[in-house]
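Quick one: sequence plus zinc ion SMILES, need structure tokens.
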Amino acid sequence: MKCKEQVDMKEPKVVQTARGGYMAKGKCPTHTETTVCAIMSKDNAEKAMDAGEAEKAF
Ligand SMILES: [Zn+2]
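Reply:
Sure thing.
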């Protein structure tokens, strides 16, 4: 099952895609077994990492 509620992902990590884009990967807060991800802009990824909201994972 795919999770749509990606806004409040738990333990978010920022990863880089093969094409050089950024993605946040985390766990669905409702279905803790499920990994969810969201595309991020470079700006948003850097802001989230600077603010300590997401862990750098690349
Ligand atoms: Zn879910």
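The beta strands are 10-16, 22-27, 35-40, 55-56. The chain has a mean pLDDT of 88.
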